[in-house]
Amino acid sequence: MNTIHTLDIVGLEQVYDRLATAIDQAGPEKSELFLVKLALLNAKAIGRPDLFEAHIEAALKDLSN
Amino acid sequence: MHQPSANPRPSIYYNYQVFKPWLPTEHGPQEKKKVVIVGAGPAGMVTALELARHGVASVVLASELQFSQGSRAIVFTRRSLEILQQVGVAHRITENGLPWRCGNSIYRGQKVFRMETPLDPDDRFFPMINIQQQYLEEYLHDACAANPLIDFRWGNKLVHAEQSAGSVTAHVDTSAGPYLLKTEWLVAADGGRSEIRSAMNLKLEGASFESIFVIADIRIDLPYPTERLAFFDPDWNRGNTILMHKEPHGIWRVDYQLPPGETPEEALRPESLQERIDAQLKMIGFENTPWEMDWSSVYSARTLTLPEYVHDRIVFTGDAAHLLPIFGVRGANTAFQDAQSLGWHLAYVLNGISPEKLMANHSQERVGAAREIITEAGKSTRFMAPPSRGFRLLRDAVLSLSLTEEFVRPLYHWRTSRPHEYKHSALNSLSDDNAQFTGGPALGAPPQNVQLQQDDFLLDHLGGGFDLVYVAPNQSIPKDLLQAIVEAKNNGIPLKLLAITQDNVDVHGADKTLFDPQQRFQLRYAVSAGGAYLFRPDQHVCARWHQVDAARLLSSLQLALMQ
């Protein structure tokens, strides 16, 4: 793929709202399952285990606050 | 005094024969034995048969007076059948077993994954065949009983094994009292709860999973073909997995995971079994079909192995050496490979062909195989019985996605037992053309069968020693090659020369000519005229050449024999 997709602020806000409403839609019981499914679909789209690993490392940071 | 039960075990399909015990009072003083095998399960009996094949006598000690209780191991792989063919019992299994090659994974009533293993015309055996372990033991026992080199002793329980330099003293108990049996080698094939292993205080390495599974054999008439059925997260057993396998005589194996916290005792209560089996039958639409229970048991998944199988003159094999998960049918199927390997390694040491260090090679190769199996089986186990919250979440996410998303479905693949490649074996040739090959089984690999003609396969002709399979360019073998083979034979090396030819004429000098009109061997082994493969007595490849010559053949043989 030659085109580089970037997430500008408009896009990020769109993702932000959509993810929040989807988590609410899944409900407290199923939101974790939903997020794991989403992560797997994203991993498939990214197609690079190393990049996925970097995302995991970034997301694991500063969880305690 | 050891008093094994003389009452036939209960079964709705198998008539247990109660054998007469071997009593020391009915026999004279016991001279020192070459090999005593403790345990008369698949591992013990295949070891005895392989040893006998290489001319080594053994005593097999069976603690009980009859074959084991319940169906236990029911699924046997192609490689297992190939090994059983070597010891002469494969035909009895193919006559009576149920062959299969497809498996289905079902979630929410939908078949989310189906695997069809193709039938290769070059294979004699199906990828899988189902038969209850009692039959397998019966066939192996018939072969042992017919073999003058095997001294089979029912009702003989090993109490204690004592090692001293170059020998082991077995303290054996019988219903007529104890006796001592001295032996050069003792094989511990006494199963997963090996008392020999415990007495020697040997520790298994690896992991145990907490999940407990029930296996129940029921007789029921279900209109399904012989295929593997795996049900994930069904309504009646949320979060857990159920497996079903068809066995001969209208028996079905139902295998289900228990909810956390439930004890085996609770799970095996008749009401509990009834309720769950009924629930499973209801789910698949056979709620009111009558069924009858034959046998039930529990197991938990473990991936454990001893780090060494050879301890001076005591050798562990089969479940006594390692505990492998049932997923992927890795118990008995691994035991056959262990026993076949042990048989020839030990026989060659006892026959004075190889030094005792060959036994270290056996241990190294088979421990390597167990570790590979543990890695593979761990993946299946983590999917079938997730060991933590994270693994459970991922498994559940995959189940959920699998209803619509193709890409996750291969995660259902259960990775069945397959033979280990001894890629790094010390017996692999250093003077062959392995690196130049573009196909065919590589150094250390198990053999690929080849259909030479109708009902005539390569593996029908291999085994019992080393086999040099040579693609003959014409009706004769080069003089120096033939001389080298004669020299090796004169030095006591069991070696056969098998000449592959496209012409239906015997090749002079070959021990056997294999007529291969379609040149299937050349195709599957990526080799042409003048080339050759050297197979070990367990049919694994230890050398291969595009153009074989006398010097490289001899040096490869010496290496493989650790001479």
Describe this structure in words.
The complex is a heterodimer of chains A (65) and B (563). Chain A is 77% helix and 0% strand. Chain A is mainly α and 65 residues long. Chain A has a domain at 29-65. Among the domains of chain B are: 24-89 and 120-200 and 308-360, FAD/NAD(P)-binding domain; 434-560, Glutaredoxin (3-Layer(aba) Sandwich). Chain B is of the alpha/beta class and 563 residues long. The A-B interface holds A 32-33, 36-37, 39-41, 44 and B 393-394, 396-398, 400-401, 405, 407-408.
Which secondary structure elements does this structure contain, and how are they paired or packed?
The complex is a heterodimer of chains A (about 60) and B (about 575).
Chain A: H1 9-46, H2 49-60
Chain B: E1 33-38, H1 42-53, E2 58-62, E3 75-77, H2 78-86, H3 90-96, E4 98-100, E5 102-107, E6 110-116, E7 128-130, H4 133-145, E8 150-154, E9 157-164, E10 167-173, E11 179-188, H5 195-199, E12 205-219, E13 228-232, E14 241-247, E15 251-257, H6 264-267, H7 270-283, E16 292-305, E17 310-311, E18 314-316, E19 322-323, H8 332-350, H9 358-384, H10 389-402, E20 451-453, E21 456-457, E22 466-471, H11 479-490, E23 495-501, E24 512-515, H12 520-524, E25 532-535, E26 541-545, H13 550-560
Parallel strand pairs in B: 1-2, 1-11, 2-8, 5-13, 11-18, 22-23, 23-24
Antiparallel strand pairs in B: 3-7, 4-7, 5-6, 9-10, 10-11, 12-15, 12-16, 13-14, 14-15, 16-19, 17-18, 20-21, 22-25, 25-26
Helix pairs in contact in B: 1-4, 1-8, 2-8, 8-9, 11-13
